[in-house]
Amino acid sequence: MDDYAIGVLTNIGLFSFLALSAYLLLVAGEMSFGQQAFFGVGAYAGGILTALYGWPLPLAALAAMALGALAQFLVGLPTLRLRGLYFAMATLAAAEMFRILFELFHWRVERNGELAGPDGTQGFRGIRWIFEHGIEPVHYLILVYALLAVILLLLVWVERSRLGAVLRGVGLDPELAASVGIDVQKAKLGVAAAAGALAALGGVLYAHHNTYIEPRNFDIMLGVHSLAYALIGGLGTAFGPLLGVLLDIGVLEGTRFFHGYRMIVFGGLVAVLLVFRPRGLLDERMVLWIRRRFS
Amino acid sequence: MLADLIQNSLDGVTAGAAYALFALGFTLIFGVLRRANLAYGPAIMFGCYAATWTHLNFGAGLLLLAVITIAGGVLAGAYVERLCFAPHRGGSAIAAMVASFALWMQFEELATIVMPRHLYAFPALYDGPPLELGPFTLRIDGLVMLATAIAACALLWWILYRSRFGLAVRAVIEQPAAASLAGINVPWVLVRVFALASALGGVAGYLVVASHGQITPMLGMWSTLKGLLAMMLGGLGSLPGAVLGGLALGLIEAHSQWFFGPQWRDLIAYLLLFVLLAARVPWMTTRSAS
Amino acid sequence: MSLLGVQDVVTAYGKIEALKGVSLDVAQGSITCLLGPNGAGKTTLMMSIAGILKPKRGRIVFEGQNIAGTPPHAIVAKGVALVPENRLVFPAMTALENLQAGAYQRADRKTVGEDIERLFTRFPRLKERAGQQAGTLSGGEQQMLAVARALMSRPKLLLMDEPSLGLAPLVVEEIFRIVTELHKDGVSIFLVEQNAHMALKVAQHFYLMEQGKVTFSGNPGSLAEDEVIRRAYLGSAQA
Amino acid sequence: MDTATFLLSLVLAQTPQADLRCTPTGEDFIYDCTVTLARGGKPLERAEITVGADMPSMPMAHSVRPSKARPGTKPGEYHFRLDLEMLGEWAVKLRLGGPVRDQLTLHYEFDSQGATRRK
Questions:
Q1: Count of domains in chain D?
Q2: Which of B96, B109, B221 sits opposite A264 (nearest CB)?
């Protein structure tokens, strides 16, 4: 595969973590505009641990996921009682605060004769772990998709389990869920933490793929796009968000056929598609239909 | 110190006037549709770009540019209403909002294609010296913006509380099902409210671009964020709240920029919104937002 | 001559058919009543006639014209007004504004003022509450306001969906007194009611409905009242 | 910081430095660029450079088709063509193969005249 294909596929994989993170919250009935903040937390935390403190990537990723989960949990604690647009705006405000904090964040450390580490708006250069360990782009691509596969298996298993039913119940009808004894707040906080961890994992992988990150990478556009991918792909299954990302970055970007007009085509396609399938391509009904045909 | 306080407040109120106008448009649409229109700012940007494009190619007077901006805004607004809000009236709020986000992307890319340069000049509303009021200065275009905001409120109040159309709009806001049973053509009311909000946005967009004397593709995101922020601060769905929220946002930004610097300005505005939302202050969570 | 003819109407919510082919008639100048247990489809039928729901099949003929599937505001223009279940007044608007909203379509603005005066004489309590927000009115007052609002569009046929719902017996008496007064003034009324006893006292003709189907049609007295009440509440489960 | 440590840090400075000069080719958003690579003050030769670009906002969505750089006449100089989607600020990515394996990110504002460095 040539460099371009590897690049596009890696981007699809990285974005899928973010879209899955937005999807989790959507299934639990909450619309978040802020997953990019936890993507950023993961990127910075992972980058600092490997580039400045020599941690191995797997360990740094786990630490970053924990930090992302904690961050989203803390943001969710006071706001998850809010509903609809109130919650969306609270997450938007929180995410913009994170982005501005990244701009104010300077953590310069002396590393082999040079100052390294996040330097506010100048960004954070030199996250070279994969170069120092001779990992070729194609190997990294395989790593990204292996992790994605693990996450997907986990999500599919959860969806088939009682926990999955609880989450969908909380999302579709919180009052009903509460009336049958589900602690809606606890469930939502759990989902929020998981979504934070997932976004952070994506962030770590992005930072090491790109070797450079800056606050502008984690702006609203990323957040609302990931929400859009989750919804367009479909809320019926964890594969939905992947389809959303594939549709935009894969088909339209990859084909370069709409060179320069990509967003106009994609925007129009999304708006029209949502008219006919308000819960996305792979919504619950479609998933049931597919399951019935193949099982 | 007191002089700075007053000067900042004056600047804050004039800047807040633009936010108030954007928030009014958002609130009107939210009031009748219970949906946030993420393409509201970008539709205004479309109007402003249409005016800039005309000015670049044919040259146009201030008034004609204003008319083109408003017309462009209303046209773009109608396109958004037909494609994102009409089909989802009974359906899901998220689908409508994501659809409006998709059109935001369309407007933004269209703007960068038609006029690729990152920044275009726009004929200033008034480029003379600011008004001197003893030790204080007040920009004329800021005053015009403030006057327009007040006029817009008065006009909206008159429309809503003194006209037959306003009665229908309020009925649709409160009880859409009962409104149709009372003989009100609800879909047609929604189209007209959307056009009214878009025209209001066109006015706001024109004043902002004319007072800054320039236009960039970031206008869509900026106006959407500020409009949403002001609407939320003032209390979702309340028109007076939108104006107060806009002015409050202007004041907060002006003072925090003075005391803490530009980066802290936005941080403080977002922090305030987050804290108020988290504390679920009464005026913010009265209206349900599906 | 029948003012309203419902012919084999089927209305569904998604795949669930709430009305499975309903046919009935409302005679000109009559009070016709529809009784039946909860979930029989009474409100679905009212909403189908008023245009809020679009029937899948069948015709709804009003003054010789099929209005099935016409949007609600157009049906109001043809002269059919629905007093909806649990009233749906405009809470933050004053009682007077609620009435004005009811007359939204009327081109003859000056006669609207006269109508409001006439309704204030018929509903004196509403006159006292005119400047008050509708949301602060009592249940009975809101019901009267909803009826008055529907009358503001000068309907030829008034549909009333369970006007006695949630009201004290004394207030229910007053509501039914108003219904008989309206009937004396020549308004044709199609009434859906749980309170079978009261309904049978005022109706000239009544229908019984169960699981989306009409199961009985006749005038009061043609069936023993307790039999009617048994079937209206318990359904006609064969012993 | 006396001269000795300064010189030492200069030599030890692992990260290569790069500077870009781009001229528009007249075709929309396509530029012919020359990059001069140096490491520790000495020009970096025999580098295999793959050039890509991305936008700071929405980083994973604007992947431009990467192109290989051809070595130029002067040592440490390489030429390549850059096909962007739109004007504005781009993060140009130089992936270095050969003697030095690394990736550099340079921010340039691209407009109708050429490219001016931002970061």
A1: 1
A2: B109
Q: Do C84 and B185 touch (CB under 8 A)?
A: no
Q: Where are the domains of chain B?
A: 17-125+136-289
- ipTM of model: 0.82
- CA C48, distance to chain mean position in Å, is 12
CA distance B165 to B158: 10
CATH code for the domain in which residue D87 is found:
2.60.40.1930
User: In this predicted model, what pLDDT tens digit does every residue of C173-200 receive, in sequence order?
Assistant: 888 888 898 899 889 999 998 888 888 8
Residue C106, classed as helix, strand or coil, is coil
The pLDDT tens digits of the residues spanning A32-61 come to 999 999 999 999 999 999 999 999 999 999
Chain D neighbors of B116, CB-CB under 8 A? 86-87
- Cβ within 8 Å, pair B270-A100: yes
B-chain residues within 8 Å CB-CB of D88? 112, 118
D51: containing domain: 3-117
Q: Which residues of D touch A217 (CB under 8 A)?
A: 56-57, 59
CB C48 within 8 A of CB C60: yes
Helix and strand numbers, DSSP H then E, in chain D: 1, 10
Locate the chain D residue with the closest alpha carbon to A206.
Answer: D60
B132 min Cα distance to partner chain A (Å): 35
Name which of B170, B183, B184 is nearest C93 (Cβ-Cβ). Answer: B170
User: What is the pLDDT, as a whole number, of residue B246?
Assistant: 94
**CATH class of the region B17-125+136-289:** mainly alpha
Residue A73 binned pLDDT confidence (cut-offs 50, 70, 90): very high
Dist CA C185 CA C178 (whole Å): 11
- Are the C-beta atoms of residues A40 and A96 closer than 8 Å to each other? no
How many CB pairs (< 8 A) connect B and D?
13
